[in-house]
Amino acid sequence: MIKPTLLFSLFFCFCSFSQQVGFELDFTATYILSKTQDTIKVGFGEEGRYLYTDSKKVAEAMKGALKQFGAADHSDGLLKLLIDLENIEMLMHFKFGKNTIIGNIDLTNFFPKKENGETDKLIAKKTSEEIIILEKSYALHAVYPNQKQEETLTVAFDNDHAVNYNKHFRKIMGMATGNIIDIDVPNGLLVYARDSKENEIIRLLAIDERPKKGLLNLDLTFQELKQ
After folding, report:
1. Of 104 and 195, more confident
2. Do 136 and 116 form a contact (C-beta atoms < 8 A)?
3. Rounded to 5 degrees, what angle do the CA atoms 55, 56, 60 make?
4. Which pairs with CB-CB distance under 8 Å and at least 24 residues apart come from 33-41?
5. pTM of the full predicted structure?
6. CA of 166: how far to CAs of 29, 47, 48, 121, in Å?
7. Count of Cβ atoms closer than 10 Å to residue 154 Cβ
8. What is the CA 169 to chain-centroid distance, rounded?
9. Exposed, middle or buried: residue 97 (CB in 10 Å: 0-12, 13-18, 19+)?
10. Which helix H or strand E contains 153, and what residues bound it?
11. 144-171, pLDDT tens digit by residue?
């Protein structure tokens, strides 16, 4: 049974839903999560403004929230997510059995409202190391917050596939931390990352270069009948 509090929350999250939402994806990257060996696909549009996924791993991660809709017993469920990092919104299309749920969710509702007024900077410094991913050599960068250098990640970027982190990621990261975020890293697709203990986190498996165009149109209208 769906709880009244859930319905109340959904009303305020979904009420901004627009009748028609269009977007374009420039390419789609397939990654492997090294710890679990799961794969995940992420589509990128407008240099990272739009992020799209329909990967089952993401649906599993959201299982706790989705079971409120009675989805726990539906292994055939399909979840599609489009995140707009400019407007901090997430378009959700969830289908299981005979049920379809569509919503445009204002993600600012899920972040703390307070701002600390402090400035954090995410810094990338090129190292002397390189790594081969998909038969191509990439320079490795040490990426870390300016105040927590012990949290260094070793990361590689593909400059041939533009992703502008400072333009599109700083707003949502600032909301998550309550600080002003400045991101000074190469503007390219993430292809590899490992943590400070040398444990691999993620690695690129493939890139689908085919651009895609998406459109969602949902409009409930009424027509007066002649009497």
Report:
1. 195
2. no
3. 130
4. 33/57, 33/201, 33/202, 34/199, 34/200, 34/201, 34/202, 34/203, 35/199, 35/201, 39/205
5. 0.80
6. 20, 11, 10, 10
7. 20
8. 10
9. exposed
10. strand 153-158
11. 988 777 789 999 999 999 999 989 998 8
